[in-house]
Amino acid sequence: MPWIQLKIDAxxxxxxxxxxxxxxxxxxxxxxxxxxxxxxxEPKPGETLLWSQTVVLGLFDASTDMQPILQALSAQGIxxxxxHILDPLEDKDWEREWMKDFHPMRFGQRLWICPSWTPVPDPxxxxxxxxxxxxxxxGTHATTALCLRWLDSLDLSGKTVLDFGCGxxxxxxxxxxxxxxxxxxxxIDPQAIQASLDNAQRNGVSDKIELYLPQDHPQDFVAxxxxxxxxxxxxxxxxxxxxxxxxxxxxxxxxxILEEQADSVAQVYKDFxxxxxxxxxxxxxxxxxxxxxx
Length: 294
Hints:
With 294 residues, the protein is α/β, with parallel strands linked by helices. Helix content is 27%, strand content 30%.
């Protein structure tokens, strides 16, 4: 069915009230969108984080008479002549539209991430089959792409790899397909562990991957390579546990770091490792290094 979409410019302190009012006025759904594409990181339990400048999108049936709704919103001071747009939306198969926009992606020289509904571009390449889901990482975000390109640049033959904060398992699975002998994935979220296992099964590597919650992973495990694509704050706080799993002269990659956070994260690791030049992708970056010899 066709729809009408009402976009209203809001602030983080009134966006939820606007959402409530749109639902009261008959909106079938309400969505919050950042006006400036600023990242919002994981909220605390029970906390709702919104951007300082938020667009509230209300979706209405196309047969809805919008004039009384606009009048009601105007009377409450929610909308004015300059802060809203009313758009008709054509009827589409939205699932297929979304699938159409997700294509195989190449990272480095050998590695491709491919959705299941498209043929692989290069059957002789290293192909990881991964469909985009609701969370965890599929390669489309710069932080994941930075880590995938780094893994592709390494000789992982016979190496042990730790994926710290494995999410979808995309980095762990890529490491296995790039030749790693043993890979462990650790995540605090049981759903991420399940997602990693499901994706490993789709890629035929479930017998080679070990997945653990932090408290359950083998304490004697040390890796040749560690990759941690999480966030700047936990990367700073967890320098000990992250590097404790890495051999002397082992290599590591850290991502999930904004450009302005790079120096503060790198500084924490400089006491334990030699740090390479930082790699940037738009506003995000990747920090790599080699731990000191024993």
